Amino acid sequence: MTQNIPDLSKIEAAHKRISSFIHKTPVFTSSIINGIAGAEIFFKCENFQRVGAFKFRGACNAVLSLSEEERKKGVATHSSGNHAQGLALAAKLNNIPAYIVMPKNAPAVKKNAVLGYGAEVIDCEATLQSREDTLEHVVKEKGAYFVHPFNDYDIIAGQATASKELIEETGKLDVIMAPVGGGGLLSGTALTVNLLSPATKVVAGEPAGADDAYHSLKAGKIIPSTNPNTIADGLLTSLGTKTFEIISKYVDEIIMVSDEEIINAMRLVWERMKIVIEPSAAVPFAALLKEKEKFQGQRVGIIISGGNVDLGKLPF
Questions:
Q1: Which among 229, 233, 284, 236 has a CA at the least distance from the CA of 261?
Q2: Is residue 77 domain-shared with residue 28, that is, in the same domain?
Q3: Fewest beta carbons less than 10 Å away: which of 33, 107, 200, 202?
Q4: How far is 88 from 14, CA to CA, in rounded Å?
């Protein structure tokens, strides 16, 4: 497993490793949205990735980076969302077992998706302590390799491939934007931009109800969220040590947005671009709309992180 911050050769190797498994997702534009924003926006649509989110890239790279010996015993993680599905599918495609610890209150649709990919789901209480304790027990019992949802360099290198594709397709961008939760996507994006297009700024969007990254960056140390509360349920996690180190070095700014701003941005994409995106994926676009004057006339890449949304509970 990768022990150092991924360099360009690691990111390129990750891309090559996963390329036959992932979808090379499209980059969409909308003249109406460009007019509203006053900028030229390129949406990298990871909502069309396998399992409906960028998370499959990192999970796939992590699984493929294991030794033969490690693979035999399988992989394990705790997640109630897209990482669970990403790891379950990556394990299935490589014919290895996957053990996913999920809180009892995780949406049935997510649990069923993980089961559908052939993983074993282990229930736990809806607390971080219970998730970690249950996972520890599973790892001990099965000997499975723990794949962290974001605080892992193989995961980060895999997520970095999304912005690599974006830069290769669009050429020089003034800004690239991504959402931030645990920081796997943002740190991977920041690394790629620094290595391939250092003049490009990296700006993150973060929900005001889960604003640990914003405060951590300001303080110069990790300040975890306490009781985060936002419609962007994919961004509730606090930064990890590895993601924080990269983000504090290479991210230019984090813009906080309210749930109302997230919903408005999400709705605009649904209505104008006719694509399904989840609230977390709308966060960087919401950040751009909130501070439009910063981006006037610029070429902006935005990573749409996923499209896994419960259609029975749309916020509009």
A1: 284
A2: no
A3: 107
A4: 19
* Cα–Cα distance, 214 to 2 (Å, whole number): 27
Lowest model confidence (mean pLDDT) among 81-85, 200-204, 238-242: 81-85
Task: Collapse the DSSP code of 282 into the 3-class scheme (helix H, G, I; strand E, B; otherwise coil) and give the result.
Answer: helix
Contact 98, 76 (CB under 8 A): yes
Q: Which domain holds residue 121?
A: 56-146
Catalytic residue among 10, 44, 79, 80: 80
Give residue-wise pLDDT tens across range 2-61: 689 999 999 999 999 999 999 999 999 999 999 999 999 999 999 999 999 999 999 999
- Decide if 55 is catalytic: yes
Tokens of 84: 């669970």
Within-domain flag for 228: yes
Give kind and range of the element (H or E) at residue 185: helix 184-196
Phi and psi based region of residue 86 (left: phi greater than 0; alpha: psi -120 to 50; beta: remaining): alpha
Annotated catalytic residue within 55, 110, 164, 201: 55
pLDDT digits (tens, 9 = 90+) for 224-263: 988 889 999 889 889 999 999 999 999 999 999 999 999 9
Do 207 and 61 lie in a common domain? Answer: no
Q: What SS3 state is found at 24? A: coil
pTM score: 0.95
Active site (annotated) includes residue 80: yes
- The CATH number of the domain where 130 resides is what? 3.40.50.1100
CA–chain centroid gap for 111, Å, is 19
The domain boundary, picked from 104, 126, 146, lies at: 146
Indicate if 65 and 179 belong to the same structural domain.
no
